[in-house]
Amino acid sequence: MSSQDHLKDTNTEERFEFKKEEKSAFKSEKGLTEETVRVISEDKDEPEWMLERRLRALKQFQEMPMPTDWPGQPDLSEVDIDEIVPYIRPDIEARGGADSWEDLPEEIQDTFDKLGIPEAEKNALSGVGAQYESEIVYQNMQERWEEKGVIFCDMDKAVQEHEEIVKEHFMTKCVPPSDNKFAALHGAIWSGGSFVYVPENTTVDMPVQAYFRMNSEGMGQFEHTLIIAEEGSEVHYIEGCSAPKYSAFNLHSGGVEVFVGEDAHVQYSTVQNWSKNTYNLNTKRAIAEKGGRMEWISGSMGSKATMLYPSTILKGRGASDNHITIAMAGEGQDIDTGAKVYHNAPDTKSTVESKSIAKDGGRTNYRGLVHIADGAENSSTAVECDALMFDNESTSDTMPYMEINESKVDVAHEATVGKIGDEDIFYLQSRGLDDDDAKQMIVSGFIEPITEELPIEYAVELNRLVELEMEGSLG
Amino acid sequence: MATLEINNLHARVAEEGGERILRGVDLTVNSGEIHALMGPNGSGKSTTAKVIAGHPAYEVTEGEILLHLDDEDVADVDVDLDDEDYHWELLELEPNERAALGIFLGFQYPAEIEGVTMTNFLRQALNAKADEREELFEDEDEDEESAEADADDEGYDTSPMEGPADDGEIGVAEFQEILSEKMELLDMDEKFMQRYLNAGFSGGEKKQNEVLQAAMLEPAVAVLDEIDSGLDIDRLQDVSKGINALRDEQGTGILQITHYQRILDYVEPDHVHVMLDGEVAKSGGAELAEQLEDEGYDWVREEAFADA
Lengths: 475, 308
Ligand SMILES: Nc1ncnc2c1ncn2[C@@H]1O[C@H](COP(=O)(O)OP(=O)(O)OP(=O)(O)O)[C@@H](O)[C@H]1O
Ligand SMILES: [Mg+2]
Fold this sequence. Notes:
The complex is a heterodimer of chains A (475) and B (308). With 475 residues, chain A is α/β, with parallel strands linked by helices. Helix content of chain A is 27%, strand content 35%. Chain A has helices at 3-9, 12-17, 34-43, 48-63, 106-115, 117-124, 143-147, 155-161, 163-169, 181-189, 422-429, 435-451, 456-473, and strands spanning 24-27, 88-90, 127-132, 135-141, 151-154, 194-198, 208-213, 220-221, 224-229, 234-242, 250-252, 255-260, 265-273, 278-281, 283-288, 293-300, 305-308, 311-314, 320-329, 334-343, 349-358, 363-372, 379-389, 395-404, 409-419. In chain A, β3 (127-132) and β4 (135-141) form a beta hairpin. The two termini of chain A are 34 Å apart. Chain B has helices at 45-53, 95-101, 118-145, 172-185, 203-217, 233-250, 261-266, 286-295, 298-307; strands at 3-13, 20-30, 34-38, 58-68, 87-89, 103-106, 158-159, 163-164, 221-225, 253-257, 271-276, 279-284. In chain B, the strands form three sheets. In chain B, strands 6-9-10-3-11-12 form a six-stranded mixed sheet, with helices on both faces. With 308 residues, chain B is α/β, with parallel strands linked by helices. The A-B interface holds A 4, 8, 11-12, 421-424, 426-435, 437-438, 440-449, 451, 459-460, 463-464, 466-467 and B 53-57, 94-96, 98-100, 104-105, 107, 110-116, 121, 124-126, 128-129, 132, 155-156, 158-162, 196, 213, 217. Bound molecules: adenosine-5'-triphosphate and magnesium ion. Magnesium ion binds next to α1 of chain B.
């Protein structure tokens, strides 16, 4: 049985929507004070420098205003940090994650089983990390990679066991807490996430996957992912997210930092299916050295509001970046997502392809920035964003900003916004497809140019989510 | 044998104060027959076609559309039609249900669907039709004889990535075989199957594609709306061959909407009808089309006016 088959066999709806009774070993108070930050750091037994970084980030968070002045940005007025439980350590024995699913408490095992993670691990992955609430509960990588010096571990564990390299890279040069208010918040109360280190000239040929699950009502998840790909190496990291829906809001504010070494290649894929009460406010950034290649693939289906603009700094000559984003917003959802690329060296290249679908009054927005620095000669960028709307209640905007400070460059930009055609639907119906299947066919055709380029495991999962989202509201 | 029977059909545009377009259409098409529907621009021919297929832009205010079927027409599904006059009221059904029962509409202006290959589309359509038939006739069976086990659960059986699931009615190999045969008949290049549905097709290619779809879906009655417009002479012959094959091999009843005698030289009609102001004003044999070609519609209008 191939990896796709097993993905087909699981019932996607059940996989995401179930809830578990909340059982935890340690749960912080609601709200955010210096005391909370100290308690988290102490519970994790962190070195002094990390506590200091957290406290500095907290101060920055408190000083920065909530972002409210972006044109057309999602409404964040409901996001009251004092209502969030920032830290829940699930009741597990081994810190840093068990390496066998059987060692986990039954309800956690069951959660990931339903999500299909252990099955996927057997079939198509080099390694898997699984986070439940604030901590990684399972972490495992095939031995052959360990032998080659590849590290894939819980971020908390990395602070302890790979201290020097973490100290150098953790929220210093890539995503400093000062970047934005939610990056600062993340810096203060981050917990869990993955650390990936790939040594020189090593190609990890099957993806590593991390799965993030929020189970408790009113909690915040703040996992940190740090990926370091040394010269000439290659790795594909897949991130999946979900949570059951509660009435209170949840907050997800992850931080991702990727260091793409010379001629290295990193692919970072996300399928985000947070419940529709989650605010998903992330900061993701990569720095690519000479000849390095960064690829961001993001599918945003869930959440109440998402603000996510993965960015790449093309720092070395000939570095390149490729962004693929698919966003889908239904009733009550505001998916504000896009890409940022900084061309800071000559001969750098970027492409951005964005497809968004808005229905039942949902809103999607493509917000992007391409910056080409003075002196970044012979750089090229191509941005294409297409939006599809199902009805007149839904909205779709595009805000592709360009800052071009160099004349010897090649810039291309295209944007389309269209409504799904009644005649198109009728045409397909007249051939025997029902209303839902007709719309689904049109949507899958709309995103086809993108899905064609996706890694197969990812594409299958994504398409199933699209189907699921479409089924939810039609008919 | 199947019969499409339209009685006193009145329809208007489905919006506040929408225009009345059809004012009492009567038409009957039996399987194996070829009917030509002619008439001036704006007389209601396309509207008739779309209302038969269930287009949501029109509201039927009066009349009925019946599809009579007999045992032969439902040989593929497990149902026994002991009723003499077994028929479906099409106006109560969704467009896809009508398609499943054997109604096909060849569009005057076919839609272009980007990103969906012809192969994917056709396989999914065939499987959808087969599934829907099962469902329609199962309900029917239950109504009559009651209590037969429910169909297998609905669930994911198709992924847009992969096309229809392989447990559909038609396997890949069988599908390919039928398809190649039909394409050859229509003299269509195989490369079309990997292209997106109608996207960038020339006017004539689109029309050819409509006939190909009809050939694949094997309808009981095919309504072909100006299938001949925009076809060059060679293609007109290919398409005509396709239409005749539909009738000869599958016994499909054809309702062919056209403005020109040209295609009728190749697809000879058994009956010709003239539509005027939303009604069938005159019907006759093949010679009626020739007369129209020579004399236009004025005389029909005068005749109809005199009758009224
Ligand atoms: N959706 C609609 N909204 C408004 N008017 C409509 C609509 N559909 C059809 N009509 C009108 O109804 C009349 C009949 O249109 P229809 O397309 O049926 O004509 P036709 O006989 O097919 O003409 P042609 O030979 O030009 O194709 C026309 O006047 C047309 O403008
Ligand atoms: Mg017409």
